[in-house]
Amino acid sequence: MAKRTAPVKKNEYINLTFVDLTHEGDGVGKIDGYPIFVPYGLPGEKAKVKVVKVKKNIAFGKLVELIEPSEDRIEPPCEVFYQCGGCQIQHMTYERQLKMKQKQVQDVMHKIAHMSDVPVHPVMVMDDPWSYRNKIQIPVGKRDGRVLTGFYQKRSHQIIDMDTCPVQNEANDHIVREMRGIIEDLGIEPYDEKNHRGVIRHIVVRAGYHTNEIMVVLVTRTKDIPRVKELIVRIRELDSNIKGIIHNVNPKQTNVIMGRNSKTLWGEDVIIDKIGDLEFAISAHSFFQVNPGQTEKLYEQVQKYAELTGSETVIDAYCGIGSISLFLAQHAKKVYGVEVVPQAVDDAKDNAKRNHIENAEFFVGEAEKVMPWWRAQGLQLDVIVVDPPRKGCDEELLKAMIEMKPKRIVYVSCNPSTLARDIKILADGGYEAKEIQPVDMFPQSNHIESVTRLELKL
Ligand SMILES: C[S@@+](CC[C@H](N)C(=O)[O-])C[C@H]1O[C@@H](n2cnc3c(N)ncnc32)[C@H](O)[C@@H]1O
3.10.20.30, 2.40.50.1070, 3.20.20.70, 3.90.79.10: which CATH number matches 135-275? Predict the structure, then answer.
């Protein structure tokens, strides 16, 4: 058979019509069936493209000029959108973003799970898809003698000089912007990643959606911060809702943002926020969903699919600070939560007390080890909820779940590909995926959250 050669060459300029979108939000054009992926291209558009990388079955291009723009294209509100690595799809209307995300879930159900017939509902939308993030973690650097804060450029550690971020909560955005001047005035040296020198690495700001309470975390390489007393005074002046200033030390050469040790420089160790009627105490290290308005919708969907009447025993695996567990405990007989981070489990127990919930119990451990142990103890269950990280559920966990035979499984996922892989395993074990509800937790980015209802086949 004749060897197929790519129909394009590196550095060649071509005219291309985009026919599809990748899951990352890049445009896909084809020449004789050979796909060329181009960031920021939209289906239906014609464009002049420079070919930048050629492989046997695929090439990558750069958009040079739009010849016929799509009606789905808008001017990105963020000035640094095309440089910043934070958002990927601000150039699409919100309606187009939602269609892309629904299709992403449908595609993986078809290609990975081989189940095209499971209904994937339209994405649950956010009424105002801006200023939603309750947490900002932003690197601090220096260029031409000036302190700057901004996210990293795509695929690099170059900080983009950024004044404002339109997906951030406005109070957090304001604090970060003002912090640059304060750090400069006090002569505190920003971290220099290349030489592993300097003091201040990241500023982390968290805000309560319902309470407006704010926590400012200063992540430094060094144990001491110069002129720390003046720094505290200046930070407190930024917003009267600041409840605590935390110092976290991260002395390592690493991409991980926070180090292990934190101490409170001023005020409270935690801020309080609410999900529904429940109150949560959130520390600097706790995982808490970043889009609080949508989190309520997500948890209501979990509750709906769990079909609780008050008499059920439920497991919440990968429970974090117990937010889903406590949400469900109000409608169940008993909820067991399991989570690998001990600090999060301490928070979960505190949160149960704070909300006077006595029918939720929390365990530290790997869900894939604790679940088989529960099975061995003969724990009888009605519903299992899982909310794993992006890599999905461990196979041992899926096996134990299948053996425990709950009537229903509710699978919360932030990664459609691993969701589809796990749904297939659960289907082989006797669970039928009935429906999937995607929820837009991260507008302007290419990420999508979803809730799946699975039932034991009779
Ligand atoms: C996507 S978060 C979900 C948290 C929680 N359900 C919520 O809505 O806030 C995933 C959680 O799983 C935890 N985790 C990761 N691997 C784990 C494992 N093997 N066993 C138990 N928990 C794990 C993480 O620490 C994190 O808190």
Answer: 2.40.50.1070
